[in-house]
Amino acid sequence: MTSLGGKIALVTGSRHGVGRAIAEHLLSRGATVVGFSRGEASLDHANYRHYRVDVADASLVQAAFAEIARNVGPVQIVVNNAAVLTSQYAMIMPPKAARDMLDVNLLGTFLVSREAAKMMRRTKWGRIVNIGSMAASLEPIGDSIYAATKAGVATLANVLSKELGPLGVTCNTLAITAIESEMLNQLPREKVEAIIRNMPIPRFAQADDIMNVLDFLLSERSGYVTAQTIWLGGIN
């Protein structure tokens, strides 16, 4: 596993769960990591910079990137992890909950990717990885909007791969399965466990499962790998 020393990586939703685990992993590989979340930092490291940003707010995203350019440097790696989830039948889904998922999960991913791409255009190298979900494939009851947003981030990566490929930037999606996290705790445990039992590899994901694929996608040797969705656990 090669070092990411000298690389600046941005992780959205870095305050807890998968986002924090990814930020810690990239720090361990030598990267300078910038974290976005709506809350205060939960990670203390010499090479970590935290910005309180709602990724659904275009003006806040643009302002944060301007500050990063002044104080940190050009972002070369982006992991779009920030997401919100309300699991509820469509007929009783509050419109605000649906809007929040669309704004954070999909629009936020677009806004962050767009600003990062402007930096990557100058450095002629970049890696954008969107964190997808098994919900996009399994389409579970109650997850209509969430699943649609996660399908959307994969399509977004595929289209951006065509726009940004000539600039040396790859765009891929890492579709994860259920992993112990605050988001998972919002769902009925029996519902999640029933889904897991029917998977080809019937177990919860571990952090290393995610980092293994992430390392592959961020590698210098993966410059010819783009517009791909990699599904964990055998889901497709």
Percentage beta strand: 15-25%
Count of discrete alpha- or pi-helical segments spanning 4 or more residues: 7
CATH architecture name: 3-Layer(aba) Sandwich
What's the β-strand tally? 7
Order of helical and strand elements: EHEEHEHEHHEHHE
Question: From the helix content, strand content and strand pairing, which structural class follows?
Answer: alpha/beta
How many discrete domains?
1
Pfam family, one: adh_short
Family: Belongs to the short-chain dehydrogenases/reductases (SDR) family.
Organism: Sphingomonas aurea
Protein name: SDR family NAD(P)-dependent oxidoreductase
Structural overview:
The chain is an alpha/beta fold. The chain has a single domain, classed as Rossmann fold, CATH 3.40.50. It contains seven helices and seven strands. It has helices at 17-28, 58-71, 95-123, 135-138, 144-164, 189-197, 207-218; strands spanning 8-12, 32-37, 48-52, 77-80, 126-133, 169-176, 229-231. Strands 3-2-1-4-5-6-7 form a seven-stranded parallel sheet, sandwiched between helices. Helix 2 (58-71) packs parallel to helix 3. It is globular.
